[in-house]
Design a protein that fits this description.
single chain, 213 residues, alpha/beta, two-stranded antiparallel sheet, globular, binds pyroglutamic acid
């Protein structure tokens, strides 16, 4: 029986009035996907100490979701980025929303340096491109709250093999043609397509998607 997709977005941070990741998640709340799964949106605090505990509590609150997908803003990117790797490292360039700014330290001492996403990231990129939005596989989720969330989620998934999950970074919204970024309506469509691809495919596609630099 189709279940739910837990879709998270972050609250605004760094002085911005809104965070596209939450705006997109919020618009998809309650939406029923092609496979019958219902999207449940959840806002996460942009706080190192609490983001993962809030998500973990939501994962464990009811029947296990079919998919956990976390979204975050990457202000400098021009494409929707499906993250392949989570690094066991934090190095905050700005304080989080609780004023904490951890520098150069492992997230989980003793854990592997990185976890890889087991989602079909290239199939997800292809699905996003098919709705007309720019997309790429990304091999770094940064060293701030998003990467930490993805690392702790990935570490949890390693110990809960029945559960699937991952992370996507979104570019800023563009409001008019020619402005950098991607319009909100297209981002909503693209994330929905990526969720459907992740649910439909267990194995990734053997497509070119790496980078030389
Ligand atoms: N982006 C930040 C944290 C919250 C968000 O939306 C990041 O990339 O770490």
């Amino acid at each position: 029986m189709p279940g739910t997709v837990l879709l998270t977005g972050f609250e605004p941070f760094g002085g911005d009035p809104l965070n596209p990741s939450w705006e997109v998640a919020r618009q998809l709340d309650g939406c029923v996907l092609a496979g019958g799964q219902r999207v449940q949106a959840l806002q996460l605090p942009c706080v190192f100490r609490t983001a993962w505990p809030v998500l973990r509590q939501a994962i464990e609150a009811g029947p296990a979701p079919d998919l956990v997908m976390a979204l975050g803003l990457a202000a400098s990117r021009t494409e929707l980025c499906v993250e392949r790797v989570a690094l066991n490292w934090v190095d905050a360039r700005i304080p989080d929303n609780a004023g904490e700014q951890p520098l150069d330290q492992p997230i989980l001492p003793g854990a592997p340096l990185a976890w890889r996403s087991r989602l079909p990231v290239k199939a997800m990129v292809q699905a996003i491109q098919a709705v007309g939005a720019p997309a790429a596989v990304s091999y770094t989720a940064g060293t701030f709250v998003c990467n930490q969330l993805l690392f702790l989620l990935s570490d949890y998934l390693e110990r809960h093999p029945g559960l699937r999950g991952g992370f996507m970074h979104l570019p800023p919204f563009s409001h008019q043609a020619g402005e950098p970024g991607v319009p909100i309506g297209l981002q909503v469509k693209a994330v929905k397509a990526a969720l459907e691809a992740a649910l439909a495919q267990q194995q990734d596609l053997a497509l070119v998607g790496g980078s030389l630099d």
